[in-house]
Amino acid sequence: MSQRSKYRxxxxxxxxxxxxxxxxxxxxxxxxREMGISRQLLYQWREKREREQQKLDPAQAGQRQLRERVRxxxxxxxxxxxxxxxxxxxxxxxxxxxxxxxxxxxxxxxxKSGN
Length: 115
Hints:
The chain has 115 residues and is mainly α. The protein is 73% helix and 0% strand.
């Protein structure tokens, strides 16, 4: 009786294809189902590929880190812009409500006491 290993072996070409598709896709879960692998395994393959590429070309690794930092900063800038637009709109609404409820801004007259 021979026992089959519970682990499957994937070729280097298959792993490379999976990682390239990971970089192009928006839906990782669908990709994993289609390829018959787990997300964890796919991410392990990606990390291993990145480590190997960094060993081959350290300058390219630095550029990759800079691109990632630019992406993070652009995302943060977008979020701050949305927050600023929201606050400007809220301030305009508050100012409009304040103007409409105050009338002329003068103190209301009341009868004098003692007359």
